[in-house]
Amino acid sequence: MRTARLRSVHPVLWAGWGALAAGAVLCVIGWYGVSGERYAERQLPYLASCTVPGAALIIAGAVLLTHGRNASAAARVEELYGLLVAAGSADAEEQEPAAGVPVAAGGDLLMVPGGTLYHRADCPLVAGKREAVPADSRVLASGDLGPCPICEPDTGDDPAAGPGDSAGPGG
Q1: What is the pLDDT of residues 16-54, one digit of tens each?
Q2: Beta-carbon-side half-sphere exposure of residue 85 (alpha carbons within 13 Å)
Q3: In DSSP terms, which residues pair with 134 in a beta bridge?
Q4: In what order do the strands lie in the sheet with 117-120?
Q5: Which residues have C-beta within 8 Å of that of residue 44, sequence separation ≥ 6?
Q6: I need a surface site. Which of 4, 49, 117, 120 has the fewest CB within 10 A?
């Protein structure tokens, strides 16, 4: 399933490869012409008409290939995100909160058993997951869980610092 954006990237890639090939051919022709001439004034036309434009085409081809590959990767990420959002909204419509599963408020912190991060309740990584449970303050204080880099939950203080860790080095 390829989108129209993915199909539009291919001409850019083909143009990049074409520019690289044409630049390489021009550089070879320029080198061959320069190597056959003994005097610099006879070499200059080959440099001006073949080697310099060939080098410019090689650079342009490299830029086109880089742009085409970046656009292709961006289109794939966009397509995958669309599929993820569509799957997430379909799951959210089908699922209702199960009885006995704790539901966290917007400011509560959640964790997934066996995970390494704690999240805000509105974090997209845990939103709608039945296995997400409210984070235990003892687990947060032990430092076993780190904050999610996506939702950046704020616990008010460092979760790894215990209640007695506020004293300085001397006391």
Answers
A1: 999 999 999 998 988 888 888 888 788 888 888 888 889
A2: 6
A3: 110
A4: 133-134, 109-111, 117-120, 146-147
A5: none
A6: 4
Radius of gyration of the chain (CA): 30
- Residue 39 phi/psi, 5-degree rounding, is -100, 145
Backbone angles phi, psi at 160, to 5 degrees: -80, -20
pTM recorded for the entire structure: 0.41
* CA distance linking residue 159 with residue 136, whole number of Å: 11
Closest CA to 155 of 109, 91, 100, 101: 109
Q: Are strands 133-134 and 109-111 parallel, antiparallel or unpaired?
A: antiparallel
Name residues of the chain where pLDDT drops below 50: 1, 98-106, 157-171
